[in-house]
């Protein structure tokens, strides 16, 4: 469970990118963070994982204030899938996934069999076992996204934060990732994810937080939160919401 209280963040001076951000993500909840380019989603995620320090506010994971914790200790509680990651060295895929085990390794002894097994299992879940011996730097953007998800799975944390994890994926892999995230929530993991497609918010998330100009303008169940009014506020009048077999679907105005 993660709780953000009154978070304010500025890269410089007091020009706040994020202002008065407060929300909770319960155990086993899949929470979408939704908002236009540049609204502050990645910035929020970097605050949550301790890469950036909020000017004001607190972030609690299972009641522990992570704004006071080291990055190493935060990594035992939260796994992060960044938008993009380019390592300077052509590590093999299996080595990148094994890096997810780093917070669990004891001192100088390095990975044990259990760490290897967890990395292999994570690659199987994501469907990338066949890439294990390939250099990460030679993969396509979508394949790299899957590797980063496997690395996060291997980390075995109670909270996962994913920044646009499906942006480079084909249709089948997008659905696979959403199914994987759903399954994780069934195991009690809290998942926070940013995605640009409002339909994905409607169809897959339990809760949606909508950001506009650095503030939360809506927080609740996707069917209540993703409305034509909210989409108009974010993007102007470019789409409509229809219902098909009682499933809501956002349709662009040009169709
Ligand atoms: N290192 C930085 N220094 C100064 N400003 C930054 C920095 N990183 C991001 N910003 C600014 O902070 C704002 C929020 O950026 P952020 O990357 O968090 O947005 P986002 O919602 O994740 O966008 P996108 O959907 O395009 O990924 C933007 O105006 C961006 O220009």
Care to describe what's here?
It is built from nine helices and twelve strands. The mean pLDDT is 94. A hairpin with a 2-residue loop joins β4 and β5 (64-65). The chain has 255 residues and is an alpha/beta fold. α3 (93-99) runs parallel beside α5 and α4 (113-126) crosses α5 (141-155). The structure holds adenosine-5'-triphosphate (ATP). Pfam families: ABC_tran (PF00005).
Summed up, what is this model?
It is an enzyme of class 3 (hydrolase). The chain is an alpha/beta fold and 255 residues long. It has helices at residues 41-48, 71-74, 93-99, 113-126, 141-155, 171-186, 198-204, 222-225, 228-235, and strands at residues 2-10, 16-25, 30-34, 56-61, 64-65, 78-81, 159-163, 190-194, 207-212, 215-220, 239-244, 247-252.
């Amino acid at each position: 469970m993660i709780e953000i209280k009154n978070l304010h963040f500025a890269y410089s001076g007091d020009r706040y990118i994020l202002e008065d951000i407060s929300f909770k993500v319960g155990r086993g909840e899949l929470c979408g963070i939704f908002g236009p380019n540049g609204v502050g989603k990645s910035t929020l995620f970097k605050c949550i994982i301790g890469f950036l320090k909020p000017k004001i506010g607190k972030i609690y994971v299972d009641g522990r204030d992570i704004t006071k914790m080291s990055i190493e200790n935060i990594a035992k509680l939260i796994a992060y899938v960044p938008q993009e990651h380019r390592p300077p060295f052509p590590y093999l895929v299996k080595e990148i996934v094994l890096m997810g085990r780093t917070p669990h390794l004891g001192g100088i002894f390095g990975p044990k069999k259990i760490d290897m097994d967890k990395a292999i299992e994570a690659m199987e879940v994501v469907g990338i076992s066949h890439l294990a011996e390939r250099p990460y730097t030679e993969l396509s953007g979508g394949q790299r996204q899957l590797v980063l998800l496997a690395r996060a799975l291997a980390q075995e944390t109670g909270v996962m934060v994913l920044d646009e994890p499906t942006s480079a994926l084909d249709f089948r892999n997008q659905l696979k990732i959403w199914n994987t995230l759903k399954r994780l929530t069934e195991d009690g993991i809290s998942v926070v994810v940013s995605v640009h497609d409002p339909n994905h918010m409607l169809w897959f998330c339990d809760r949606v937080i909508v950001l506009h100009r650095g503030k939360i303008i809506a927080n609740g169940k996707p069917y209540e939160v993703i409305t034509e009014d909210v989409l108009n506020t974010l993007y102007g009048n470019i789409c409509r919401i229809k219902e098909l077999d009682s499933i809501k679907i956002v349709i662009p105005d040009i169709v």
